[in-house]
Amino acid sequence: EVQLVESGGGLVQPGGSLRLSCAASGFTFNNYPMSWVRQAPGKGLEWVSAISGGGDFTLYADSVKGRFTISRDNSKDTLFLEMNSLRAEDTALYYCAKRRAAAGHNFDSWGQGTLVTVSS
Amino acid sequence: QSALTQPPSASGSPGQSVTISCTGTSSDVGGYNYVSWYQQHPGKAPKLMIYEVTQRPSGVPDRFSGSKSGNTASLTVSGLQAEDEADYYCSSYAGSKTLLFGGGTKLTVL
């Protein structure tokens, strides 16, 4: 059974930094691209970032480009999101999501999310 | 890039059919057959219901179906059941390896 468990969220001041982690199990982690998707309180889903299975190719939404960095450690089956220069509008529940197939643009497994609150 | 456009709400009685639309542009929904639909119950993670416009993952009831015409994709739920009450989100590949989501539709089973 696929499991994705996020951690690292919390309360941070505007301009601060945070590093999220997502521990994966139940599948061959390095075979699958992974993404971060966020959901502001009471709002819809927003794709944030993606990384290839080998970690050599990354993508970002315009809203986080230059501030967030996605990475992965395939030896530890773990996905990361380094978030810098945080803003109030980054407040959201951050999900890690596994792509259903190596190709394609959909996610068949999601974690339960980790909450990031940016506030002074 | 703007989010895809979905109606904020939809409703139907048990046993009825409901269709939720998702409107984009020729640069996303209309340009690729990479539309997906997700179901999200309150406090839960999203669940993939439809991918690549019409495909159902294993375990998803065949009451759920997807289609697309031009720049608008649709999710139809037939034979509505109480457990179908949830938020539904569409998503589409939008070129340059990016992904867009819709604003979500709250489906109420009357």
Short description:
Chain A is mostly beta strands. Chain A has strands at 3-7, 10-12, 18-25, 34-39, 45-51, 58-60, 68-73, 78-83, 92-99, 107-110, 114-118. Chain B contains no helices and 9 strands.
Can you lay out the helices and strands and say which pair or pack?
The complex is a heterodimer of chains A (120) and B (110).
Chain A: E1 3-7, E2 10-12, E3 18-25, E4 34-39, E5 45-51, E6 58-60, E7 68-73, E8 78-83, E9 92-99, E10 107-110, E11 114-118
Parallel strand pairs in A: 2-11
Antiparallel strand pairs in A: 1-3, 3-8, 4-5, 4-9, 5-6, 7-8, 9-10, 9-11
Chain B: E1 9-12, E2 18-23, E3 35-40, E4 47-50, E5 64-69, E6 72-77, E7 86-93, E8 99-101, E9 105-109
Parallel strand pairs in B: 1-9
Antiparallel strand pairs in B: 2-6, 3-4, 3-7, 5-6, 7-8, 7-9
N-to-C SSE string of chain B, H for helix and E for strand: EEEEEEEEE
Low-pLDDT segments of chain A: none
- Rounded to an integer in angstroms, the radius of gyration calculated over CA atoms of chain A is 13 Å
Largest interface: A-B, 21 and 24 residues
**Helix-and-strand structural type of chain A:** mainly beta
- The gross shape of chain B turns out to be globular
* Tally of individual helices of chain B: 0
User: Please, how many helices of chain A?
Assistant: 0
- What is the arithmetic mean of pLDDT of chain B? 95
Q: How many β-strand runs of chain A?
A: 11
Query: Tell me about the biggest sheet of chain B?
Result: 6 strands, mixed
Distance between the termini of chain B: 35 Å
